[in-house]
Write a structure and sequence with these properties.
Length: 106
């Protein structure tokens, strides 16, 4: 992973997708990913994008085409954004968490 860091924003609420070293106490027990009110200086809301499936690293300025498979990595913890079949402890909906998995990367 290289290039710029960015913030993921849930448009309807304007909340930022954020994470830290906290793990879910149930479900997957992986790193918790949540949404929070925007803070301009929140370093826990920074992400990077990279290609998945054995493609070379994504560089700043690369064009990501429709249909490209990518992964999102949290800048501070270096965990990959993923979803699972577990129910989220806070919302009861599908859990989103951070994982060490390489998702096809070597």
């Amino acid at each position: 992973f290289s290039g710029s860091a960015f913030k993921l924003v849930h448009i309807p609420s304007n909340y930022h997708v954020t994470s830290s070293q906290v793990t879910w106490g149930s479900g997957s027990h992986l790193q918790a990913i949540t949404a929070c009110e925007p803070e301009a200086s929140n370093p826990n809301a920074l992400w990077q994008i990279g290609y998945a499936n054995d493609r070379p690293a994504c560089s700043a300025g690369d064009v990501i085409k429709c249909g490209d498979v990518v992964s999102l990595r949290h800048v501070n913890t270096r965990k990959y954004l993923r979803s699972s079949t577990h129910r989220a402890p806070l919302s009861g909906r599908q859990e989103v968490s951070g994982d060490d998995g390489n998702f096809g990367r070597k």
